[in-house]
Amino acid sequence: MTDILTTIDSFVWGPAMIALLLGTHIYLTFRTGFIQRKLPQAIRMSVKRDGGGKGDISSFGALATALAATIGTGSIVGVATALLAGGPGAIFWMWLAGLFGIATKYVETYAAVKYRVRDKSGAMLGGAMFVWKRAFARKDGSVPWWATLGAVSFAGFAIIATIGTGSAVQAAAISGIITSSIPAVPAVAVGVVIVAAVAAVIFGGVNSIARVCEWLVPIMAGAYALGCLVIMGMNFSVLGDAVVLIVECAFTAKAAFGGAVGSGIIMALQFGCARGLFSNESGLGTAPIVAAAAKTKNPADQALIAMTGAFWSTGVICLLTGLVLVSTMIAHPDIAQSVLANPSLATGAALASAAFAEIPVFGTPVLVLGMCSFAYSTILGWSYYGNRCVAYLFGPKGIKPYQVVYVAVAFFGAIGVGDVVWTISDIGNALMAIPNIIVILLLSGMIARETRHFVYEDHLDEAADEPVPMTKGPQF
User: Fold this and answer.
1) Rounded distance, CA 10 to CA 384, Å?
2) SS3 1
3) Residue 459 and residue 41 in contact, taking contact as beta carbons nearer than 8 Å
4) DSSP letter at 470?
5) Which helix (H) or strand (E) holds 382?
6) Tens digits of per-residue pLDDT, 237-279?
7) How far apart (Å, rounded) are the C-alpha atoms in residues 267 and 277?
8) Mapping DSSP to helix (H, G, I), strand (E, B) and coil, where does residue 451 land?
């Protein structure tokens, strides 16, 4: 089964998917006038007070929830597994995909906010499924079959991906980092604690999730970044070598770490782009689901704020992690040999643990607490994504069963099904990305025109149209 899944994963993340993903990132970068240059302004906007826009949660709450879902396993263990499978060059492609992916994050969020709706209770709903339905609806309200197919396929693949990526993989990472750092703690006990902690929050809805993420994300990201900087200072003598090795392996078939890792360009590209998408979600279509619930006056306002998430998760956290791991493996060949003997999800966690263990006394606790906080917040964020997709397909009655399954899968992830589920998650991520990428490419011309008005002609304080009430459909 593992071999079959690995084959499927290699196929869906083959050259065609890499070309589609990177091509979309680059195309939308130019289509939006290199929107990345607005990052300083977007960062300032992300911490300002809300300007009275319509929505359920604050703009920062939406960003924090999206960051909670991205700065986590993908930013730590994901970087480690990309390094082990694709060589140091994969880190370069992760970072580059994140840089260009900022434009994609902007465009997909713009579309989600523009086409969001209100349900019968007044709550905001949005995401690629609603973009497909509303953007291409006919004048009589009917939706073409191909648009319905795009909406349903996105929601269906998203549910699969959230259960794997958001629940099992994160729980496996928590269990792996705790048991590798504190062997006396059994995985079953970790699983029970995860179930209790997750259930206590996700049944409270988006406001409950956002409240937790608003205070948890800045603290955990700051503490982790500080730990990375300390390790990089300790490895300063080989830090330059680490940078050179990462760049060389991105463009050449160079063996690394004494020949233990053979880095080919295609493998580096494949795992770098796959883990890059897993890390920042640009093109995946998940973060816009929560962005659609934000209080914002117009789509461009929230899209600018949302795009900072890709910068923080991949441009900063993943880059720091990659430099820490590569410099540690260069400085300590014994660590490299031990983790490369049996590369896996658990090995990725062990590599991160070994790197942070370089910091006397505080290193291991910082990593354990940071990794647990990252993964826990990711579980919370992805639960909301799946919640909205289930509601779209099955209505409110499907939410509670989904939440029960979501929590149960977290337990099984904690006790040892992480590697298989990680592969399934990779496949699900690719399949849900396809309908999302197609719809934003179809709408990119309109979004580019409106971006010129709102962003480049300085009309960000201008109010856009009100979200429409929910229309008839399978979702409610």
Assistant:
1) 28
2) coil
3) no
4) P
5) helix 363-394
6) 989 988 988 888 888 776 555 444 555 666 777 677 766 666 6
7) 15
8) helix
Please work out, in degrees rounded to the nearest 5, the angle formed at the alpha carbon of residue 222 by the alpha carbons of 45 and 127: 50
- Give 75's contacts (C-beta < 8 A, 6+ positions apart): 279, 313, 314, 317, 318, 321, 374
Residue 291: name the closest of 100, 83, 42 by CA.
42
Sheet holding 468-469, edge to edge: 124-125, 117-118, 468-469
Q: Which fold has domain 56-133+151-450?
A: Amino acid/polyamine transporter I (1.20.1740)
Q: Which helix H or strand E contains 202, and what residues bound it?
A: helix 187-202
Secondary structure (DSSP) of 328-377: HHHH-HHHHHHHHTS-SHHHHHHHHHHHHTTSTTTHHHHHHHHHHHHHHH
For the record, the structure tokens of 318 come out as 């993943």
Identity at 111, one-letter amino acid code: A
Rg of the chain's alpha carbons, rounded to an integer? 21
**How far is Cα 418 from Cα 6, in angstroms, rounded to an integer?**
14
Domain ranges in the chain are: 56-133+151-450
Question: Distance between CA atoms of 263 and 249, rounded to whole angstroms?
Answer: 6
pLDDT of residue 259: 47
DSSP reduced 3-state for 182: coil
Model pLDDT for residues 290-334, shown as the tens digit of each residue: 888 888 888 998 899 889 888 888 888 888 888 988 888 888 877
What is the b/e burial string over 435-467, where b = at least 16 CB atoms within 10 angstroms of the residue's CB? bbbbbbbbbbeebbebbeebbeeebbeeebeeb
Instruction: Note the maximum CA span of the chain.
Output: 68
The rounded distance, in Å, linking the Cα atoms of 434 and 432 is 6
CB burial of residue 48 (10 Å; 0-12, 13-18, 19+): exposed
Least confident range of 177-181, 268-272, 393-397? 268-272
Ordered alpha helix ranges (H), 235-362 = 236-251, 265-280, 287-291, 299-310, 319-331, 333-340, 345-356
Residue 298 tokens, joined: 């117009």
User: What does the alpha-carbon distance between residue 206 and residue 123 come to, in Å, rounded to a whole number?
Assistant: 10
User: Which two structure tokens, joined as six digits, stand for 100?
Assistant: 């260009």
Structure tokens at 59: 């703009």
Mean pLDDT, the chain, whole residue set: 80
Distance between the two ends of the chain, CA-based, in angstroms?
37
CA separation for the pair 161, 389 (Å, rounded): 11
Question: Two tokens at 415?
Answer: 């006790």
Residue 261, classed as helix, strand or coil, is strand
